[in-house]
Automatic annotation (TrEMBL):
Coiled coil: none annotated. This is Acyl-CoA dehydrogenase. Pfam families: Acyl-CoA_dh_1, Acyl-CoA_dh_M, Acyl-CoA_dh_N. Signal peptide: none annotated. SUPFAM superfamilies: Acyl-CoA dehydrogenase C-terminal domain-like, Acyl-CoA dehydrogenase NM domain-like. It comes from Nocardioides zhouii. Keywords: FAD, Flavoprotein, Oxidoreductase. PANTHER family: ACYL-COA DEHYDROGENASE (PTHR43884), ISOVALERYL-COA DEHYDROGENASE, MITOCHONDRIAL-RELATED (PTHR43884:SF12). InterPro entries: Acyl-CoA_DH_CS, Acyl-CoA_Oxase/DH_mid-dom, Acyl-CoA_Oxase/DH_mid-dom_sf, AcylCo_DH-like_C, AcylCo_DH/oxidase_C, AcylCoA_DH/ox_N, AcylCoA_DH/ox_N_sf, AcylCoA_DH/oxidase_NM_dom_sf. Belongs to the acyl-CoA dehydrogenase family. GO terms for molecular function: acyl-CoA dehydrogenase activity; flavin adenine dinucleotide binding. Residues 125-222 form the Acyl-CoA oxidase/dehydrogenase middle domain. Residues 234-385 form the Acyl-CoA dehydrogenase/oxidase C-terminal domain. The lineage of its organism: Bacteria, Bacillati, Actinomycetota, Actinomycetes, Propionibacteriales.
Length: 390
């Protein structure tokens, strides 16, 4: 299988890079400092078609001109200047649009996708709870079908794009019954954010991703029609696990953007910073660290593009799932290491907020956690190799 980028992909990458440099890079530090979610820029991204890269033309998407690889390229280039904006696109498409696109009825798609694809609105994906993170099967949120309506009670946490001024919908997993073996039946329910009883709590005070919209959610007798069930009843957990496989590749792309930024910043600084009569880049101690960044960048990018190409080519699910976990664990851990190296290259200046390297350092850690922790990825990889790991 070839996963070389086409000329169209390279041209698309360049267009997103130019947009990111012109419209995001000059403001990223301020957005981070002020914890500002830039709705106007997000909607501009919509007008550029970035939210429709995996959607058919009938909903305003790119159709045959777009694919999953294009989405990963866009996330990478946005993440190269601002990880918060990169994850905003990743969450909006991978967790908001794609579940509806994959599992929604024709009526659900017609109702929600045009505005989501256009970037007029955002949707979130509510899986994690205080007691159900990696163990998502421990979901406590409940949904009961009463008189033709789902009545939802419970809470979710760490939900991206869930409380912004343009968030219109959050799809959540909820217990809708008990199976014959005593395990929970988990289904996916679409909850419009303006429904009475739906509350987006105060935004988190996070270590990083300050310009990303992230909230805990609570539901008190939230009532929606029965037709707000997404996919088949009792298949919500399986649907969301499949959604996470795509998300892991997208987070890998975000990590590649982070590593690229670290390499860019380190190269520039190592060429400009003078010590002992010359640039620090001529010192092996610095040069070798920057060389390591290039190694991590190339390996992470190749693993990510390979997984994205497998997705676009319709590779067998088991093979794609394995490739997604491999890319995710390697790229995210490399990104964390890359920010540490870049901070070290900058020395004392790397500890000062006036330099963007500090923002990337803070932003990187969550890459190893979101969309399945590194520990979960290693468990999945081991299972894929036939090991009976628990």
């Amino acid at each position: 299988m070839s996963f070389e980028l086409s000329r169209e992909h390279e041209d698309f990458r360049q267009s997103v890079r130019e947009f990111a440099q012109a419209e995001i890079a000059p403001h990223a530090a301020r957005w981070d400092r002020e914890r500002h979610f830039p709705v106007d820029v997000v909607q501009t991204m919509g007008r550029l078609g970035l939210f429709g890269l995996t959607a058919p033309e009938e909903y305003g998407g790119a159709g045959e001109d777009g694919d999953f690889t294009s989405l990963c390229l866009a996330i990478e280039e946005l993440g190269r200047v601002d990880q918060s904006i990169g994850v905003t696109l990743q969450g909006a498409v991978g967790l908001g649009i794609n579940p509806i696109l994959t599992y929604g009825t024709a009526e659900q798609k017609d109702q929600w996708l045009p505005d989501l694809v256009a970037g007029n609105t955002l949707a979130g994906f509510g899986l994690t709870e205080p007691g159900a993170g990696s163990d998502a099967g421990a979901t406590k949120t409940k949904a009961e079908l009463r008189d033709g309506q789902w009545v939802v009670n419970g809470s979710k946490q760490f939900i991206t794009n869930s409380g912004s001024d343009i968030t219109s919908l959050v799809t959540v997993t909820a217990r809708t019954g008990t199976r014959d073996d005593g395990s929970a039946e988990i289904s996916a329910i679409m909850l419009p954010t303006k429904t009475p009883g739906f509350v987006a709590e105060k935004a988190y005070d996070k270590l990083g991703w300050h310009a990303s919209d992230t909230h805990p959610l609570s539901f008190q007798d939230v009532r929606v029609p029965a037709d707000h069930l997404l996919g088949d009843q009792g298949r919500g957990y399986a649907q969301f696990l499949a959604t996470l496989d795509d998300g892991r590749v997208a987070i890998s792309a975000l990590s590649v953007g982070c590593i690229q930024a670290c390499l860019d910043m380190s190269l520039q600084y190592a060429g400009e910073r003078q010590t002992f009569g010359g640039p620090i880049g001529r010192k092996q101690g610095v040069a070798f660290q920057i060389a390591d960044l290039e190694v991590m960048l190339q390996a992470s990018r190749m693993l990510t593009y390979r997984a994205a190409a497998m997705k676009d080519a319709g590779a067998p699910y088991g093979e794609f799932k394995q490739a997604a976990s491999v890319a995710k664990v390697y790229a995210t851990e490399s990104a964390v290491t890359a920010t540490r190296i870049a901070t070290q290259v900058f020395g004392g200046y790397g500890f000062m907020e006036e330099y963007p390297v500090t923002r990337f350092y803070r932003d990187a850690k969550v890459l190893e956690i979101g969309e399945g922790t590194s520990e979960v990825q290693r468990m999945l990889i081991a299972r894929g190799l036939g090991l009976p790991v628990e």
